[in-house]
Write a structure and sequence with these properties.
homodimer; about 210 residues; alpha/beta; six-stranded parallel beta sheet; 8 helices; 8 strands; about 45% helix; globular; DNA-binding
Chain lengths: ~210, ~210
DNA sequence: TAGATTGTTAATCGATTAACAATC
DNA sequence: TAGATTGTTAATCGATTAACAATC
């Protein structure tokens, strides 16, 4: 109902997790669920769940709870999973290939339309898409108008390339390079810093008494 | 100096980022830096930086700032990057292979000692390690005592396997499967939910006015 | 109607920021 | 000594939790 005009980052980051759990619950055949039960399953508080859902208008019914089907589909809409964002992937190395097969199968809200690499002849395209030379990217963007770029390239090259891609109409980056992009407010950036994630885990494992 | 006895999660999650930036600054030849300058570079507040560092005892000097070399090495110690945690990787598909080559080259604080798959004969080991059958994992753990497991397997199999691995002495999971593990308090879990990350980005990109 | 459970406001908690005395 | 900048405490801000009236 209401649109995302006042939604905090912590809430946004919880939405995909709600969606995952609710999809499973829906698949299990359950038709209704209360905030209390969902909270138990997800290790959250019922209060937080109701609070979160109410950012978007409230999908429940007093005395009943939430209809699983309806709630799932509402969150699906909030996350725009029905719309498929056209995306390109740059850097078809090991990681790039892994992401390709994920994106072509069950990735949510995205449509991979182009692959690019500095040395396309070295990349065996396991996917249906051919790998283009990176110099072809400007023409490709002008014609096909991708909105999202997935960066699987070495860190040093990433910031410069990102800036260029912004000028070509890219408004979102899924960044797997090990550095941070400087794109100001013209694009959204989601960093997947595997090194940071691993160091955090290492810290915790080493800290176990 | 002081040990990690009262460090909040947000602080822990910022440590790897500090480490990345400081390593770069060190490599650039700069020998001292103030909290104000570091804050500008990292888009943080100087206050937060001083606050964060003081969780561990304070590494600066009034009137001077921080010695880059010393600060970097302190954070390196805090993150235990000198210790290499012995780790195994399970599921040598596209993603598993990508992580292998990352882990064998420049991954921080980890030492990959074993690879496992349900169908090892189908996995071309691009690395120096051979791929073992997953049934060999118990014997391997008994002998080599890995502490960390990297799960690159389908979601459905992950929770059951994780539980078994806990019993084999694993105390940390780097989880790339799309479900959450239930390991109670016997192990640390760091989830890399690529789907969640992508949905968050999709939400933001679609929300741009 | 009575019971259940939401939607929503108020209270609490924790993290971030500001301020400044300590001190190099 | 004067200037700079930390370490640390206090103030602010925002997110989470608790409480309860609304209502199905």
């Amino acid at each position: 109902m209401a649109d995302n005009f006042n939604v905090s980052n912590p809430v946004i980051r919880r939405l995909p997790r709600y969606y995952r759990y609710l999809s499973d619950i829906l698949a299990s055949g359950k038709t209704r669920i209360s905030s209390t039960e969902l909270a138990q399953r997800m290790s959250l508080t019922a209060s937080q769940i109701r609070h979160d859902f109410n950012c978007f208008g409230g999908f429940g019914q007093q005395g009943y709870g939430y209809n699983v089907q309806q709630l799932t589909s509402e969150i699906e809409k909030i996350l725009y999973l029905d719309k498929k964002i056209p995306a390109i992937l740059i850097g078809v190395g090991n990681l790039g290939k892994a992401l390709c097969s994920y994106l072509e199968n069950d990735a949510p809200g995205i449509n991979l339309i182009g692959l690019f690499d500095k040395q396309p002849e070295l990349c065996k395209p396991s996917s249906g898409l051919t790998v283009n030379h990176i110099d072809a990217i400007a023409d490709f963007c002008a014609e096909r108008k991708p909105k999202l770029a997935i960066l699987c390239i070495p860190g040093d090259d990433a910031p410069k390339l990102a800036k260029k891609l912004c000028a070509m109409g890219i408004t979102g980056f899924w960044n797997f390079s090990h550095v941070e992009l400087e794109v100001g407010s013209v694009a959204e950036v989601e960093n997947v810093h595997l090194g940071d994630s691993l160091m955090t885990l290492g810290y915790k494992v080493n800290s176990i008494k």
